[in-house]
Amino acid sequence: MEKLINQIIVKGTNEGLMMILPEGDWEEVRSAIVERINSQSAFFKGADAFIDVASRNMRATEVADLRDLLGSFEMRMKGLLSFSEITQKNARALGLDTSLPLKRGKRERKLVILSPNEDSAFLIQKNIRSGIRIEKDESIVIIGDVNPGAEIISGGSVFVWGKIKGKITAGANGNEQAIVGALSIEDSQISIGGIMRIFSKKIRNSNFTAPLILKIQDGDIVAENIKS
Amino acid sequence: MTGKTITITSGKGGVGKTTVTVNLAVGLGLRGKKVVCIDGDIGLRNMDVILGLENRIVYDIVDVVEGRCRLKQAMIRDKRLPDLFLVPASQTRDKNSVTPEDMIRLCDEIKTEYDYILIDSPAGIEQGFKNAIAPADQIIVVTNPEVSAVRDADRIIGLIEAEEKGPASLIINRMNSAMVNRGDMLTQDDVNELLAIDLIGLIPEDENVIVSTNKGTPIAFEGKTKAGRAFQNLAARVEGEAIPFNEIEEKMNFLDKVRKLFG
Ligand SMILES: Nc1ncnc2c1ncn2[C@@H]1O[C@H](COP(=O)(O)OP(=O)(O)O)[C@@H](O)[C@H]1O
Ligand SMILES: [Mg+2]
Fold first, then answer.
1. Domain limits at A55?
2. Which of A59, A85, A191, B84 would you call most buried, defined as having the most Cβ atoms within 10 angstroms of its Cβ?
3. Using the beta-carbon criterion (under 8 Å), do A64 and B125 form an inter-chain contact?
4. Does some domain include residue A102?
5. Can you tell me the ipTM of this complex?
């Protein structure tokens, strides 16, 4: 039988590298990935990667471990493609895409209509914990906290019905109309439309029952009605 | 009988997983429960040392999984508690010699005769962690009141939620009341606020833990020590008793108490 390492297929796509993994014992496939990347480390370094595991059922810990493993080679795991519903569910729970992003042309058309007034958003109802990264073209609404070490990236706006303590990027494609909303913000890094601001002390709306809204004004991120 | 499998894990190493596992086992054993500890840290075993049983090991978990002995032959009985057993890890085999399916099979077998199976997980999220959480009915996350340990605990809790093994329960180990009172350490509230899962144990920093480890007599046998009492409280909470969290004395003057009340 052909060696596992030779059964790993690597292809370039518009969105980054696509790595198609063979069947077989996961620990052996994992070792083969390490071997493969080591054999061409300069090529893999810094790449965005989509991993295709066909029908393999992967546990959430395996998915997280694979992402760490690629991270240790300075690669970024963007998505995990699989027919397995279990694998898809676990990938989504960790904030990974489960399909390739839309083709360039379509994507750009979508960008134009992205605004804080768009009528659809991605809703998540849990605390976003350290190590989890959620990246979407559309706006993101989180009911829960964004903890230190977690990262939220949206082409539109980000609204957190909870505390922001992690890293937020809104208007990731340069949309300066995007906003960031939260019940409170402490010790976090927030970018909107490419402009970044670091918050080191806790702030919230002076009206306790209202959320805090951050937006761009005169090239700076400003917050309305701050209470610190 | 159908026992309960509890896995003790942390993310970060050295926060006290093994100490907690052994002492929870002793605490449950003192309550008359039948308990089996499984050392999940293959290649780095140390539960046997803390229990003072290292020279009794003949077979280990890899021998059971690979069929070289029966499960009962690898279960070492504690010197003090007749219903406390240890299934040791292998010192020499690599961590991939046991799979999650092996662990589930093993625990299903033990569960028919024992009240609790306690699995001590290794640090990190690789194979050993995967093995340790696969059979778990309940997961306990151990952390220290320190920023990096809490961050790692948060990550592990996220993974446990993604595995649909949650909600996990939390133990804060090595609370130092003097440091908390000086404001030099994260408080119980700071940790709870970030991790937002149920607290089940609060263990003070206690040098008796280290002394007892060296003697091979777990501190939970000594209910008069601060840590020993905290571990006995933990065992009671695992059994469903509502024990107040009074393990850490807060030295507050009257004014502080009033402030806390209205804070
Ligand atoms: N509450 C405590 N007070 C004092 N020392 C402790 C306490 N808990 C653990 N220790 C010590 O910390 C060290 C690491 O503990 P251990 O249980 O081996 O951690 P882990 O299994 O997470 O790696 C050991 O030397 C242990 O004796
Ligand atoms: Mg240990």
1. 2-93
2. B84
3. yes
4. no
5. 0.76
CATH classification of the domain holding A169:
2.160.20.70
Task: Provide the whole-model pTM.
Answer: 0.83
Q: How confident is the model at residue B215 (pLDDT cuts 50, 70, 90)?
A: confident
Nearest to A189 by CA among A162, A214, A209, A161: A214
Which of B209, B219, B225 for mutating ligand 1's site (highest number of atoms within 8 Å of CB)? B209
Asked whether B12 lines ligand 1 (CB < 6 A), one says no
Binding-site residues on chain B for chain A (CB distance < 8 A): 96, 100, 125-127, 129-130, 133, 151-152, 154-155, 157-159, 161-163, 194, 196
| Pairwise CA distance, residues A153 & B40, whole Å | 37
Q: Taking CB atoms and an 8 Å limit, are A129 and B96 in contact across chains?
A: no
Alpha-carbon distance of B161 to B183, in angstroms, equals 32
How do residues A103-124 score in pLDDT, each as one tens digit?
544 444 344 334 555 567 899 9
Enumerate the residues of chain B whose CB falls inside 8 A of the CB of residue A70.
none
User: Is A101 an 8 Å CB contact of chain B?
Assistant: no
Q: Are residues A7 and A80 in the same domain?
A: yes
User: Atom 16 in ligand 1: which residue has the minimum CA distance?
Assistant: B16
Residue boundaries of the structural domains of chain B: 4-261
CB contact under 8 A, B130 and A130: no
The residue from A93, A110, A139 where one domain ends is A93
pLDDT digits (tens, 9 = 90+) for A169-213: 999 989 999 999 999 999 899 999 999 999 998 888 777 778 899
Nearest-10 crossing angle of helices A60-72, A26-39: 10
Note the CATH number of domain B4-261.
Answer: 3.40.50.300
Helices (H), chain B: 17-30, 47-50, 61-65, 71-74, 100-111, 127-133, 147-162, 177-182, 188-195, 207-215, 226-238, 254-262
All residues at 6 or more sequence positions from A43 whose CB lies less than 8 Å from its CB, including other chains: none
